[in-house]
Amino acid sequence: MLTKTLKTNADLMARRRAAIPRGVGQSHEVFIARAENAEIWDVEGKRYIDFAGGIAVLNTGHGRPEIKEAVKAQIDLFTHTCFQVLAYESYVELAERFNTLAPGDFAKKTLFLTTGAEAVENAIKIARSHTKRSAVIAFTSGYHGRTLLTLGLTGKVAPYKTGFGPFPGEIFHAQFPNETHGVSVDDSIASIESILKNDVEASRVAAIIVEPVQGEGGFNVAPTDFLQRVRALCDQHGILMIVDEIQTGAGRTGTWFAIEHSGVAPDMITMAKSMAGGYPISGVVGRAEVMDAPAAGGLGGTYAGSPLACAAALAVLDVFEKDNLLERSRSMGAHMVTRLEAMATKDKRIAAVRGLGAMVAFELCKDGDVHQPSAELAKALAAEATKRGLILLTCGTYGNVVRILVPLTASDAIVNEGLDIIEACLAATA
């Protein structure tokens, strides 16, 4: 009688290294077997609490029943037509709902794509088409994707840009405000004005693109005053304001779009990640007259706005309303910040705790000196957490920030269990 050989993480990692390029990184040497809500079990049967959420993709948790049922129902009807060839109502309905959700007292239209980088690329295309201008201003520590254009926009070299240049021209980087590291809102606005004086005239700038909370950059929250002044500067010079909500959107910060906290209405918003509960879809929602600038056939993609992902995204919107997940995001985030700030009072290596809603992170340093970022400690803490059954991710320009992206559907008990593990890991790495 044959006995089925049990697979191990080590065996699968060996196969992975032999079959897959090293450029496809992996934060944890763990292979998942199954998952439910905010819990994961690997191929060896070990349980983990998921504080990564597939990098902000699972705000509604793993395996949400309503989302699975919506996708199963769509599979029984059809799986693909290419929307530009044969359309389907779910794409239209989803666009209508996002047109209503997006801030701004003006008519809007929405385009669906497949990945976050695609959304950003298309937003830039639309901005150039509408303004008949070419230049774009982005920000230091920003992250916008892995294609050559979006890498050009990204304000962090390692590991994203290393060895991949040259990048598209007429992209300029202003300073992003960061109180912890001494960059004020005035400094940031002055750096934009410096670009317009020294590098490119305002009449050639199509757009300024900004994250309301920088994701890969370290969960740096854009002050309301900063976003309002960027909006005013754009209005002054006829520049479009694009807000990248790929990581911040879908309720992560306590409003559907993080920009809502500021009262600012951008011209376009890019979105992806959690908007379909793990199914690949992205989008751009913006002013109708701006979105209509490209000629027919100028936008789209073979898999763009997949019917399976549209069904999932509609179900996600319903789940948010049913479970009041925006309020859950706010209360969960406040609780996590309180717990982490208590840890910071006892551990001087925590330089800062910050976030918006349930988009929360803490920054680690050496000897209590915020100017000595400790990527080594962040890496060690994440590794120790994995051993203890918690999946964490690091980020930040210097790799010294630990971020929390637990599903908004996680129970208080699960969240507290994860925070307890973080506290234990801080003690273990002291």
UniProtKB/TrEMBL annotation:
The keyword Transferase applies. Its cofactor is pyridoxal 5'-phosphate. It comes from the Bacteria. The keyword Kinase does not apply. InterPro entries: 4NH2But_aminotransferase_bac, Aminotrans_3, Aminotrans_3_PPA_site, Class-III_PLP-dep_AT, PyrdxlP-dep_Trfase, PyrdxlP-dep_Trfase_major, PyrdxlP-dep_Trfase_small. Pfam families: Aminotran_3. One of its GO terms (molecular function) is pyridoxal phosphate binding. PANTHER family: AMINOTRANSFERASE CLASS III (PTHR11986), LEUCINE_METHIONINE RACEMASE (PTHR11986:SF58). This is 4-aminobutyrate--2-oxoglutarate transaminase. It comes from Rhodoferax fermentans.
